Amino acid sequence: MNILAISSEMVPYSKTGGLADVVGALSPTLANLGHDVRVFTPLYDQVDTSQLNLEVVLPDLDIALGDHHYRVRVLRDVDNPTAFLVHCPVLYARGSIYTHHPDEHLRYLTLGWAALLTSQHMGFSPDVLHCHDWQAAMMPLTLKACFSWDRLFENTRTLLTIHNLNYQGGFSSRILPDLNLQGSTHLLHQDYLHQGRINFLLHGVLYADGISTVSPTYAREIQTPEYGAGMDPFLRERSSTVVGILNGVDYESWSPEKDEFIPYRYDLDDLSGKEKNKKHLLHSMGLPYVEGVPLIGVISRLAGQKGLDLLGEALPPLLAQRNVQLIALGSGDPGLAQMFASLQRAFPRQVCFFNGYSEPLAHRIEAGADIFAMPSRYEPCGLNQMYSLRYGTVPVVHRTGGLADTVQMWNPANKTGTGFVFDHHDATGLHWALGRALETYRRRDEWPILMKNGMKKDYSWTNQARVYEELYRRLGS
Ligand code: ADP
């Protein structure tokens, strides 16, 4: 199949979250299965191009959106030929990936148009146009309204993947001319338009041939008012086309037996390196190592979605009453950063918080911690709990979205399960689950079995890419 994909993030060029990992891993895996995959993604100013081997696909492509004109250059990464980087400094050299600038919609419409126009130049006839998140969500409608004359796209089926329903790309209807819809504006959602709004994600939901999200549980949740973020009526209407496909893990980067970032490698047969990693991690963060004291790890965007406020309530009594330590890594919301900083001040020998983004430290926490806390309010899929399973770092999670699909409650009676799961999203629920984890940690006959149950799980991309492959084939039928 010819697969054209559009994504605002892609590892290794850009990343703020799971989307980048998904696109960066799914594309080469599909290519290895024999498909011609071409992903269009912006060349942001953070990308160090001196480290890349780029070839020019199109030196000069003019894109007109309403009254705005952009001149873009399309480059291909010779070492990663699925990646097509759209170079347009006026749009993508902003010092951060996303902005609140008034031209945010233009930044991503340009990306989508660059993908379609470059396909025309290349004579690339996609069987599938795979649009990721709101940034690409106008493209199924754009294809229908502006490109249907071109036989190149006559067999193109479209798929919208929603990585997080709460980011929808809502704009004022003043941007209408920038959509280039001319005589086709009736195709926009008219009630929204009359209220002066244009919601990009909604138009993906309305016009894509298929809709997917990143876990089966989240696919069900987003069709309910509680998790639907206003989009649930539209998703319910298209219920038969909404599917959940769990993200895979890139085990090349995230496996304790080959992780380049961790000082001591280990695997299922010999876990001894894990304790050494823990000791190294604690010392590097300025905390004492005491044998038998469990270490809880947190790696997260600091955002309301992640439920970290529950940690702020549940942890102080645990830290005061029990021998337990915490290392947290995260950046984002200043209030949550403040919360972790005050925990560190209150428990200086037990808590260390690193406010920032660090890939190496993320790996070292996965390898060194005993328990991983992920109390997300909602979680479309979540990657860190799956990394944790692989590293024998037992996850403590809220039963929602992908967390519910990937972590099973430990049952000491028959020694099954991979972690600890709480149902009620409150501090009591989290406190209960952490308490269960800490008690189990002390049972030296149980804990290694629990760790190994998780380490044996396989959430590799090869399996998941085959599921996408099947979905691509079914689209529109
Ligand atoms: P989301 O996409 O909602 O942020 P995921 O769990 O799907 O959540 O993916 C998060 C990814 O971002 C993981 O690969 C995680 O390791 C990484 N990550 C998040 N915050 C940080 C940070 N401060 N430093 C390093 N990596 C981080």
* Separate helix tally: 18
Helix % is 25-40%
Structural class: alpha/beta
Distance between the termini: 16 Å
What value does the Rg take, in angstroms?
Answer: 23 Å
CATH topology of the largest domain: Rossmann fold
Bound ligands, named by name, code or SMILES: adenosine-5'-diphosphate
CATH A-level architecture of the largest domain: 3-Layer(aba) Sandwich
CATH class of the largest domain: Alpha Beta
**Overall pLDDT confidence:** 97
Number of domains: 2
Strand order of the largest sheet: 3-4-5-2-1-6-7-10-11
Low-pLDDT runs of 5+ residues are none
Number of strands: 17
Looking at CATH, the homologous superfamily of the largest domain is Glycogen Phosphorylase B
What is the global morphology?
globular
Strand content: 15-25%
Kindly describe this structure.
By secondary structure, the protein is of the alpha/beta class. The chain folds into 2 domains: 2-248 and 462-475, Glycogen Phosphorylase B (Rossmann fold, 3-Layer(aba) Sandwich); 272-458, Rossmann fold (3-Layer(aba) Sandwich). The chain has helices at residues 18-32, 89-92, 104-122, 133-136, 139-146, 190-194, 200-207, 216-221, 232-237, 272-284, 309-321, 334-346, 359-368, 384-390, 401-406, 427-442, 447-455, 461-474, and strands at residues 2-6, 36-42, 54-65, 68-77, 83-87, 128-132, 157-162, 170-172, 197-199, 210-213, 242-244, 295-302, 325-332, 351-355, 371-374, 394-398, 420-422. The strands form 3 sheets. Strands 3-4-5-2-1-6-7-10-11 form a 9-stranded mixed β-sheet, with helices on both faces. The chain has a 6-stranded parallel β-sheet with strand order 14-13-12-15-16-17, sandwiched between helices. Strands 8-9 form a two-stranded antiparallel ribbon. Strand 3 and strand 4 (68-77) form a beta hairpin. Helix 1 packs across helix 18, helix 10 crosses helix 13 and helix 11 packs across helix 16 (427-442). The mean pLDDT is 97. The structure holds adenosine-5'-diphosphate. The site of adenosine-5'-diphosphate has 17 residues, from helix 1, strand 12, strand 13 and helix 13.
